[in-house]
């Protein structure tokens, strides 16, 4: 997979990408802490989770080589894991969030 | 993957001559080195999918109680030292960088960089656990550990002056806090064990550009643990900090 593609590229190209992702992750962390000090009304939690999701996606795509994975099954496993996670969270929360209505 | 069957047959047909030619790192039941690497990564990703569900259950419990006891959760969250959590986030991100450097070093046969990156990763992992220990000690000193000596009296709910958090509800936050960060810390300790093993293998020069599967999948594990923390940090440390 990635190991094959990265080793066949010029040796400096993955390093540049790794340091760019690393910088983005640090900036994202600082941004999360800063956003937590602002009063965003109902949007504090969504903003924090959105930043966390961007950071997690960067780690998965570039550090865990999902983006360059030649094996499509790997991508399928990632998508399947997320699908079942959202099934778990979505169905549970749709129950608890609507209990007040009945 | 779809041409698996045919290529495997082909390998068997010319097994005798291929045996002398192919790299000893390539196991017989794989057609190519790339297929061998893909299989190992795929297996690790399936394991990580089970880990997603494992932590997912805890995140689900967290969300349910956070909705119910939001004010109490905010008060309890505010009692944790946010800067220790933020520092630990940065420490883990640095360790993820050293992990990709280790994988790259293994791919490109840079033994000293590989060993250095593995050692640095472990040091950062230990630093994370040390900071975690300081944080836990604060919680023990403040009697914020769920149990007989738990106390969370007269803690104001952020943004609601004069309203105090219900200690029982706050205790639920701290239970989730200790279970989630505790299980995460356990994963870090297991990760340190894996990386200690990788380090001895690297020291003996076992890894080559053709075969460094343990570095790759050990790295996947480490990054996953980093991702869990990326979510734990805002959810546990940053509830209603602005109030």
Secondary structure layout:
The complex is a heterodimer of chains A (102) and B (243).
Chain A: H1 2-8, H2 12-36, H3 44-63, H4 72-98
Helix pairs in contact in A: 2-3
Chain B: H1 4-13, H2 15-21, H3 33-68, H4 70-78, H5 82-107, H6 111-141, E1 156-157, E2 160-164, H7 167-203, H8 213-237
Antiparallel strand pairs in B: 1-2
Identify the most extensive interface between protein chains.
A-B, 53 and 56 residues
Walk across the major sheet of chain B and give the strand order.
1-2
**What is the radius of gyration of chain B?**
23 Å
CATH topology of chain B: Four Helix Bundle (Hemerythrin (Met), subunit A)
Could you give the count of β-strands of chain B? Answer: 2
Strand percentage of chain B: under 5%
Q: Give the radius of gyration of chain A.
A: 18 Å
Label this structure with key terms.
heterodimer, A: 102 residues, mainly alpha, 2 domains, 4 helices, B: 243 residues, Four Helix Bundle (Hemerythrin (Met), subunit A), 2 strands, 3% strand
């Amino acid at each position: 997979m990635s190991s094959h593609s990265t080793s066949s590229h010029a040796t400096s190209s993955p390093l540049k990408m790794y340091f760019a992702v690393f910088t983005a992750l640090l900036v994202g962390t600082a941004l999360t802490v800063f956003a937590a000090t602002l009063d965003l009304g109902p949007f504090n939690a969504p903003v924090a989770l959105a930043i966390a999701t961007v950071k997690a996606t960067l780690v998965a795509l570039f550090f865990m080589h999902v983006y360059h994975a030649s094996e499509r099954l790997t991508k399928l496993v990632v998508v399947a894991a997320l699908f079942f996670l959202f099934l778990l969270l979505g169905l549970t929360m749709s129950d608890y969030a609507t209990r007040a209505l009945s | 993957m779809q041409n698996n069957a045919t290529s495997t047959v082909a390998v068997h047909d010319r097994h005798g001559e291929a045996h002398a030619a192919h790299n000893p790192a390539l196991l017989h039941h794989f057609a190519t080195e790339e297929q061998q690497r893909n299989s190992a990564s795929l297996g690790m990703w399936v394991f990580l999918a089970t880990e997603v569900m494992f932590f997912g259950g805890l995140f689900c419990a967290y969300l349910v109680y956070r909705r119910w006891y939001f004010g109490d959760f905010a008060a309890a969250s505010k009692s944790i030292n946010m800067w220790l959590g933020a520092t630990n986030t940065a420490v883990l991100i640095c360790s993820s960088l050293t992990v990709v450097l280790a994988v790259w070093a293994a791919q490109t046969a840079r033994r000293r960089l590989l060993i250095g990156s593995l050692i640095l990763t472990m040091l950062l992992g230990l630093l994370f656990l040390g900071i975690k220990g300081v944080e836990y000690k604060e919680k023990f000193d403040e009697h914020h550990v769920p149990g007989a000596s738990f106390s969370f009296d007269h803690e104001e709910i952020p943004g609601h002056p004069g309203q105090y958090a219900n200690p029982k509800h706050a205790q639920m936050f701290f239970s989730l806090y200790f279970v989630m960060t505790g299980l995460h810390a356990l994963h870090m300790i297991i990760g340190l064990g894996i990386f200690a093993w990788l380090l001895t293998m690297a020291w003996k020069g076992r890894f080559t550009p053709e075969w460094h599967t343990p570095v790759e999948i050990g790295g996947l594990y480490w990054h996953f643990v980093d991702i869990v923390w990326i979510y734990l940090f805002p959810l546990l440390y940053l509830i209603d900090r602005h109030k």
